[in-house]
């Protein structure tokens, strides 16, 4: 038995976030499986519905992931005819991703899925938005601390 109360699992913010995230993602998967996409593909599509077209590097930046993580996701979406990739003539390393007609058409179905998941939380609109705001602020604060650590090394 631990002698440090701060090491109890129920006292861990990271575990609370982890458990909540897993619960939400599991619920998303139920519906996303029905339309044949994964949660990470869903996130990439969200960026593209918002941005219309985007470089892979920017998608990775928005999703707080590495570019090499995004590339195979985009390749799978392209095989599903939901997105198309285009290399820049000036710099072949720059790949722009945009939605196809099928990708655009999928947006309504995914909006319905997001509503179902939001309803499943049983949070009132204000609670839902406050929680998102708090989590976004936490992520931003942690990123700033991480950047400061990186520059001091």
Quick gist of this model?
This protein is mostly helical.
Task: Give structural notes.
The protein contains seven helices and three strands. The protein is mainly alpha-helical. It has a single domain (5-122), classed as Arc Repressor Mutant, subunit A, CATH 1.10.10.10. The chain is globular, with a radius of gyration of 19 Å. The two termini are 36 Å apart. The mean pLDDT is 92.
Structure class: mainly alpha
Second CATH tier, the architecture:
Orthogonal Bundle
DSSP strand tally: 3
Low-confidence stretches: none
The amount of beta strand, in percent, is 5-15%
CATH class: Mainly Alpha
Mean pLDDT, all residues: 92
CATH topology: Arc Repressor Mutant, subunit A
- Order of H and E elements: HHEHHEEHHH
Radius of gyration: 19 Å
CATH-assigned homologous superfamily: Winged helix-like DNA-binding domain superfamily/Winged helix DNA-binding domain
Q: What percent of the residues sit in helical stretches (DSSP H or I)?
A: 55-70%
Give the strand order, joined by hyphens, for the main sheet. Answer: 1-3-2
Largest sheet: 3 strands, antiparallel
Number of domains: 1
Assign an overall shape.
globular
Q: How many H/I helical runs? A: 7
Separation of the first and last Cα atoms: 36 Å
